[in-house]
Write a structure and sequence with these properties.
Residues 17-131 form the Orc1-like AAA ATPase domain. Helices cover 41% and strands 11% of the residues. With 132 residues, the chain is of the alpha+beta class.
Length: 132
């Protein structure tokens, strides 16, 4: 899946999500906290096929002005290292894209990613989906 930014959410679903008000509210509270300068991490964990991706896509539609970064882990036996970052690369700054293209060490990449997030003018929502 390609990265999705605040101005490009055309590939997100438009059908309503049923019985997900509680988890959507919880995600909204974490985003509100992040907008106040207190970032957070949320792990969405359930059995396969229960609707985790749909929940996150619905949240992405409703979260307002954010930089939304979305990446998916490969389902291959030997997955591409840091594959989700490559999915998000179009939304990265030039410095981070260059590091990624040069296959820089993970600690260098994540330091640059954190710096980019800190400089972002909007809140950043980053989704890394497990392999489908």
């Amino acid at each position: 899946m390609r990265p999705v930014t605040k101005d490009d959410r055309s590939d997100l679903p438009s059908r309503p999500l049923l019985e997900r008000d509680v988890p959507l509210a919880a995600l909204g509270r974490v985003l509100d906290s992040a907008r106040k300068g207190r970032g957070g991490t949320v792990f969405v964990r359930e059995e396969a096929g229960i609707g985790k991706s749909s929940l996150l896509r619905t949240f992405a539609q409703k979260c307002g002005p954010v930089l939304l970064l979305w990446g998916v882990c490969d389902a291959f036996a030997t997955a591409q290292v840091l594959g989700p970052l490559f999915d998000m690369a179009d939304a990265f700054d030039e410095h981070l894209r260059n590091l990624l293209s040069k296959r820089a060490a993970a600690n260098v990449l994540f330091t640059a990613l954190l710096a980019m997030v800190r400089r972002a003018r909007a809140s950043v929502v980053m989704v890394v989906e497990d392999a489908p």
